[in-house]
Amino acid sequence: MSGPSVSPAVRVRGVDMSFGEGESRVTALKQATFEARAGELVMLVGPSGCGKTTLLSVIAGTLTPQAGEVEVFGQRLDGLGQEALTAFRRRHLGFVFQSFNLIPTLTVEENVMVPLLVQGRSHEEARARAREMLGKVGLAGREESRPTALSGGQQQRVAIARALVHGPTLLICDEPTSALDKDTGAQILAMIRDLSRAPGRCVIVVTHDHRIYRFADRIAEMEDGRIRRVVDDPTLLDQPHA
Ligand SMILES: Nc1ncnc2c1ncn2[C@@H]1O[C@H](COP(=O)(O)OP(=O)(O)OP(=O)(O)O)[C@@H](O)[C@H]1O
Ligand SMILES: [Mg+2]
Fold this sequence. Notes:
Radius of gyration: 18 Å
CATH superfamily: P-loop containing nucleotide triphosphate hydrolases
Structural class: alpha/beta
Number of domains: 1
Order of helices and strands: EEEHEEHEHHHEHEEE
Bound molecules: adenosine-5'-triphosphate, magnesium ion
Distance between the termini: 45 Å
CATH architecture: 3-Layer(aba) Sandwich
Strand order of the largest sheet: 6-7-8-3-9-10
Shape: globular
Number of helices: 6
Largest sheet: 6 strands, mixed
CATH class: Alpha Beta
Number of strands: 10
CATH topology: Rossmann fold
């Protein structure tokens, strides 16, 4: 009976998202449609301003679109109240922000503990798991530092550790290698891809970094607020987005 699930982990259909009013109105998503399946790492590529971060925010439930449907693990997000959305994010979601969004007043270790503490884990467990995850991203010994004392690449790895530490079923990464060298970027992507292989997991990565395209199962090319096409071979893309 049991075969691969046919229902996608993430399904976005006909989503419109615009910001502002009147003359200053900007349309970021125009009837955007996108799918990602469980067990899969999908990359999202496209020129600056085409709507990649906006699409990620809609999938994460932090932006509510004006039109269309957003479904994650069979749960419709549009129409969920704030409380239910927060519960959904705490349980399912890991998010690596393009701008890292680390909390400057907390130490590196405390930043990584946050997703576990809001899930109600004990302080001891959260600390132990945060330390282990910081070791995996190559930051052992920096636990007590403040984020502002770290290099850009180190801060990015803290953001990645924080997104992975609670084993999210849906991991969303916005330019996760933008501040990393080639080898570190490849190591981090290998870790992220491993997570996508765990049962029921799904990973979506926005990137301009063609050096990591090889980690993708499929690449969705975005243009002007919508997905233009989806390929499983990066050489089929028009241009590498360097
Ligand atoms: N909060 C906002 N208020 C107003 N306009 C916004 C807002 N967020 C995004 N936009 C606009 O929506 C469009 C898409 O932005 P988005 O951040 O999704 O692009 P992107 O593809 O992630 O670009 P980049 O590669 O530079 O990160 C842009 O024109 C942007 O200016
Ligand atoms: Mg962006």
